[in-house]
Write a structure and sequence with these properties.
The protein has 540 residues and is an alpha+beta fold. The chain has 17 helices and 17 strands.
């Protein structure tokens, strides 16, 4: 997700203000009613309480491509296909069945009698409207780039929807339907050509998933209740009412899960906090294959360097200077592992070209040669931006360490700055940051999800990278049904990206982690490569 994904993963701010000093979730629940702007709905207490430091950027699927927004979207929107907990193969959700009618035509039959929580019918025409809208709006902070291969969508009747693709034999398209690009929205509530404010989504009761939002105080307190009209893959949720409290500080999140004020802490506790909680017999620290990626992005227009060759030399010098092992062990205490490609190890076709080309350890001499050969004056001034609240509070320590690593070579002078998530996500898409932090959570469990969203046309990084040769390679790997041939294409594109472009430098990969009370069950089922944190499996 993808902003991060990466999902990625993407970006915004919105801190708890008048409740920031209150460590207990119970106090926060009392406080936000009196001090929060943008509160919608009444709502009552929740049967299960969740805490997070992530922030919601938008509830409109067309406007958000980040994990903080993906979590509520997972609860409130239905998809044509979806991933069942723990499963890596998409299955029918709003659909009864789907399949390729032709190499470029993917056809789905939509269930009869579906409806949104406000009573509006959910039909094949709703599906067509949702995908047409996603592509038309093409919001810079949204996930429309995932639909790059979608030519058009048709709904010849209420039960049939056809997706016509630009390139045949797309091996990933079924897995894209359950992603952040695929929520089904109400055509009577969502405008076709612009995004909808969260408050209007909540008031319009435009929900099709397992839950509806009963009370909404953005990035403070969101309350959910079961949607009795949901009819799909995920079934009836195990807990009828759930609330999510949003924390400004990971330390308060840790305190509240530790003392039972909340039942689940999901994103993002510090490595030190997790180490401490593993020794606490009142909670369980659970992990699963999350596929998270942390990396540095270069804006190819505004980064240092007077010519394209000089800019490339700077990027290669940075790739030769970072110490991933030090970040993994020193900052993250082994919770993350060094990664040497945008595709983490464990995925089909993953290779390690950054290790082969730039080395597993920092190489000052090699970095200096890249700069000298391109006649780049040193020290190179780098304005490096990071986000302190969306990717976890350890980002401050991580990027202070990266600044130290780069400056220790004597080749760089780093101006390190931070911006909170809401502003960060907007500014990085508007050429606000020459070099900046990003994180990624996979949209679907396939190596292409670590490639096309980053390096394809209309990529979500918005860093001005586009190359016809790379685009052709990406198209080839997506449409190659032979596994071994596809692995060869994947290996080649990873090498070419690392050798010839370096538009981003991969740093670390990690697992999905949740901390739950001893009486809470179900979280193990949802910590999987889909990165869908499903409230419906949780109970106590």
């Amino acid at each position: 997700m993808r902003t991060l994904a990466t999902r990625p993963s993407p970006i915004r701010s919105g801190r708890l203000k008048c409740v920031a000093a209150l460590g207990m979730a119970s106090l926060a629940v009392l406080a936000v009613a009196g001090c929060g702007a943008g509160r919608t709905g009444g709502g009552s207490g929740a049967g299960l309480k969740i805490g997070t430091t992530d922030k919601i950027y938008s509830l409109d699927p067309a406007a958000a491509y980040d994990q903080g927004s993906y979590v509520p979207e997972t609860q409130i929107y239905q998809h044509v296909l979806n991933f069942a907990p723990g499963q890596a193969v998409p299955q029918p959700d709003a659909a009864e069945k789907c399949g390729f009618a032709q190499p470029v035509v993917y056809t789905c039959t939509i269930r009869s009698g579906l409806k949104f929580a406000n009573g509006d019918p959910l039909t094949a025409r709703s599906v067509k409207y949702s995908f047409d809208r996603m592509v038309k709006i093409n919001d810079p902070n949204g996930p429309a780039s995932l639909l790059e291969n979608l030519d058009h969508t048709d709904a010849p009747d209420d039960h049939t929807v056809t997706f016509t693709l630009k390139v045949p034999n797309d091996q990933t398209f079924p897995a894209i339907l359950p992603t952040q690009a695929g929520p089904i929205v109400d055509e009577k509530v969502f405008p076709a050509d612009k995004t909808l404010p969260d408050e209007d989504i909540v008031k319009g009761k435009a929900f099709s998933g397992q839950y509806v939002i009963s009370s909404y105080d953005k990035n403070k307190l969101v309350q959910y209740r079961e949607n009795p009209d949901y009819n799909g893959l995920l079934g009836k949720p195990k807990t009828a009412t759930i609330s999510t409290t949003y924390y400004a500080e990971a330390s308060n999140l840790k305190l509240d899960v530790q003392n039972g004020a909340i039942d689940v802490a999901y994103r993002s506790l510090t490595p030190t906090d997790l180490e401490s909680l593993r020794g606490d017999d009142k909670v369980k620290v659970l992990s699963g294959p999350g596929g998270e990626l942390r990396y540095i992005v270069f804006n190819l227009n505004t980064m240092p360097g007077g010519t394209p060759d000089q800019k490339l030399a700077v990027r290669k010098a940075v790739a030769s200077s970072v110490d991933r092992d030090a970040l993994a062990s020193g900052v993250y205490k082994g919770l993350f592992k060094p990664v040497y490609s945008s595709v983490p190890q464990g995925f089909v076709g993953a290779t390690e070209p950054f290790k082969e080309i730039y080395g597993a350890k920092p190489n000052k001499d090699q970095a200096a040669k890249f700069l000298a050969d391109a006649k780049v004056p040193t020290p190179v001034p780098i304005n490096l931006q990071y986000n302190p609240d969306h990717y976890g509070s350890s980002s401050s320590e991580e990027y202070a360490a990266i600044k130290g690593q780069l400056e220790a070579t004597g080749l760089f002078k780093v101006n390190l700055q931070s911006t909170e998530w809401v502003s960060y996500n907007k500014e990085r898409t508007q050429d606000g940051y020459p070099v900046f932090q990003m994180g990624w959570f996979p949209d679907y469990p396939d190596p292409d999800d670590y490639l096309t969203p980053f390096f394809g046309p209309n990529n979500f990084l918005k860093n001005h990278f586009q190359d016809p040769g790379v685009s052709a390679q990406l198209s080839a790997e997506v449409t190659e049904p032979d596994v071994e041939k596809r692995k060869a294409i994947l290996a080649q594109v990873q090498h070419d990206l690392a050798q010839n472009f370096v538009s981003m430098v991969p740093l670390l990969s990690g697992e999905a982690i949740a901390v739950v009370g001893k009486n809470v069950s179900g979280a193990e089922q949802t910590l999987d490569l889909s990165t869908k944190f499903r409230y419906g499996v949780l109970s106590k």
